[in-house]
Amino acid sequence: MSDKPEKTEKTDKSERTERLSVFKTYKLYVGGKFPRSESGRVYEVTDAKGKWLANAPQSSRKDARDAVVAARKAFGAWSGATAYNRGQILYRIAEMLEGRRDQYVREVGEAEGLSRSKAAAQVDAAIDRWVWYAGWTDKIAQVVGGGNPVAGPFFNLSSPEPTGVVAVLAPQESSFLGLVSVVAPVVATGNTAVVIASEKAPLPALSLGEVLATSDLPGGVVNILSGRTAEIAAPLAAHQDVNAIDLAGADEVLAKELEIAAADNLKRVLRPQPVDDWTAAPGTERMTAFLETKTVWHPTGSLGASGSSY
Amino acid sequence: MPTTAPHALSDVTASDSTLRRFLHGLPGVDAVGLEARAASLGTRSIKTTAKAYAIDLAISMVDLTTLEGADTPGKVRALGAKAVRPDPTDRMTPATAAVCVYPDMVATAKKAVAGSSVKVASVATAFPAGRAPIAVKLADVREAVAAGADEIDMVIDRGAFLAGNYMKVYDEITAVKEACGTDARLKVIFETGELSTYDNIRRASWLGMLAGADFIKTSTGKVAVNATPANTLLMLEAVRDFRAQTGIQVGVKPAGGIRTSKDAIKFLVLVNETAGEDWLDNHWFRFGASSLLNDLLLQRQKLATGRYSGPDYVTVD
Questions:
Q1: A240 and B306 in contact by Cβ < 8 A?
Q2: Cβ contacts (< 8 Å) between A264 and chain B: which residues?
Q3: Quick check: is A84 in a domain?
Q4: pLDDT for A293 beyond 70
Q5: pLDDT computed for residue A289 by the predictor
Q6: Which of A23, B28, B131, B263 is 20–30 Å from A12 (CA)?
């Protein structure tokens, strides 16, 4: 009697060979493509308890250079797109994220050592943040621009313009919500971005590239690099073709170094702001930090025989 | 008037049949081997001081070119100023070899580069198609030389070449060479993209050199396929072998499609490894290019300052 069940168990095992799981090769997201680091290097990424999760590409300065070239190339079309179109695309990103919510909940949970429900709250907040900024694309101009009263026969109009290519050091602790909270405002207003993902927890950021690539976001508008933050940030801060830098992910010492390097071509610098709770309402500061104001003086005068003027 | 120099090969141009027999007797090109060789030489890593040397050398070899219907005297003057002093923020930057313009702009260009080492090259002979009567082509050349051109870039009659009428092409080149006189150097453009096969490019190279070309040049830059590492390598082999047989050194000029410093350095590696150091000089090797110079300058600034430069720091041409 006892032999029989044992036998059947054995045959069961040999017939049902265990499936090998397919590991994902995490890659950079540059110019709408998914390259490995030019240097060929990778580094080990672990979860909050030190267990190995994956190897992430360790970008070099040449990857940073390539990303800037891609971002510059994308800037003309992205900044020239209508605000309405940009809003639709940002909303589309939220839609795509929603469909892959489970994947991000798992990745964020592993990366930050959060329970499933806490990780889900982070991901939901990140998706909502895309929607929030999607709504801002065609409203920011009314808030920070407008007609100025001047003492002369002029129409005087101020309108916000994107700054250009923005290097973004994503927050180190909040690997996904923090990342979205610094990237979305940059691209919402028409800038293009070169993003350095959180050094310890880059996987959610690298996965975000897959969503961006399928959301009608033109290649090069957002470029995502992983690796040693200080190594990649230094050439970006000194790069003459980068117009602004967001130092959210830099510590005090690094931030000072980078700000000095950034002064060379008068980059706009957003210094690290202490953020305890990324779920709090973000306000418009991160958008206005990377906007320039263009003011146009348009002469007016009396119009026609009635003598009316504007 | 010597049509050909008296050398070991002078008898092959005696008649149409000897010329044809000679050109068709050239060894066939191993296309796969040629491309593999060009590709493998392109993988050499040139860094730090060698890179700095290569960039300066490449800048000194650029024939800064503008060949547009919309060329204005102002644009040619701007080009001349850039050729003389490519990077105004760094006076150690070498001048380019020449500016290359259409014949009617030669006088303007000459004035713009006066007093410098920069030469004025002019395309001629009904560039880029070359479809004009010989009298018109020669008049084109004479006008350019009279206006002060130091170098003439002629196009061969590809139609005659492809029809196998080698003697006609030969006679045309010798006639243009004569029209150039003793002062102007002659570059012969084969338009390799229209010659279809590597065998044809090899034949054209030898034909051009036999007819007295001072330079052989890949292309006009006006067709889909321009200079490639493979066709340039083939022409470098031809000038090397030609000098071995006749003692006459001929220059090479790849033109069109070379846009980055990385590409330019690959070509320099080809020159050094194929023709040899004697050709690593702007008297014997040139790049026909316009946007290449800006990339060379950006790379040069990067090496000098250690930080990446951007398109805001070079001129918009």
A1: no
A2: 307
A3: yes
A4: yes
A5: 97
A6: A23
In angstroms, the CA B9 to CA B30 distance is: 24
CA B261 to mean position of chain CA atoms: 17
pLDDT confidence band for A309 (50 / 70 / 90): low
CB-CB under 8 Å, A240 with B307: yes
Q: Give the residue numbers spanning the domain of B108.
A: 32-307
Domain extent for A102:
26-44+53-299
Domain membership flag for residue A165: yes
CB of A172 closer than 8 Å to CB of A197: no
Using the Cβ of B313 and the Cβ atoms of chain A, whether some distance falls under 8 Å is answered with: yes
Q: Does A304 fall in a domain?
A: no
Beta bridge partners of A295: A158
| Residue A14, pLDDT above cutoff 70 | no
Whether residue B211 lies inside any domain: the answer is: yes
* Residue of chain A with shortest Cα separation from B298: A240
What does the pLDDT read at residue B98?
Answer: 97
Number of domains making up chain A: 1
Give me the mean pLDDT over the A247-272 stretch.
96
Residue A241 to chain B, least CA–CA distance (Å): 5
CA distance, residue A41 to nearest chain B CA (Å): 18
Which residues in chain B have their CB less than 8 angstroms from residue A261's CB? 307
SS3 B63: strand
Whats the size of chain B, residue-wise? 317
CB A183 within 8 A of CB A130: no
Residue B105 inside a domain? The answer is yes
pLDDT digits (tens, 9 = 90+) for B56-96: 999 999 999 999 999 999 999 999 999 999 999 999 999 99
* Mean pLDDT for the stretch of residues A194-200: 97
**Which alpha helices (DSSP H) does A32-174 contain, by range?**
61-80, 83-99, 101-112, 116-136, 140-144
CATH code for the domain in which residue B150 is found: 3.20.20.70
CATH number at residue A193: 3.40.605.10
Q: Are A198 and A227 in contact (CB under 8 A)?
A: no
- B15 part of a folded domain: no
| Number of structural domains chain B divides into | 1
C-alpha to C-alpha distances, B235 to B99, B173, B267, nearest whole angstrom: 23, 18, 12
The chain A residue lying nearest B313, using CA atoms, is: A240
Single out the residue of B199, B192, B193 nearest to residue B216, CA to CA.
Answer: B192
Mean pLDDT of A59-67: 97
Q: Is any Cβ of chain A less than 8 angstroms from the Cβ of B308?
A: yes
Distance from CA of B87 to the nearest CA of A (A): 16
Q: Which residues of B are catalytic?
A: 153, 217, 253
| Residue A202 placed within a domain | yes
Backbone angles phi, psi at B255, to 5 degrees: -140, 140
Sign of CA dihedral B49, B54, B55, B59: positive
Please give the Cα distance from A258 to B212 (Å, whole number).
Answer: 59
pLDDT number for residue B183: 87
- The answer to the question of residue B11 being in a domain is no
Q: Under an 8 A CB cutoff, do B307 and A235 touch?
A: yes
Q: Are B293 and B81 in contact (CB under 8 A)?
A: no
Backbone angles phi, psi at B291, to 5 degrees: -80, -15
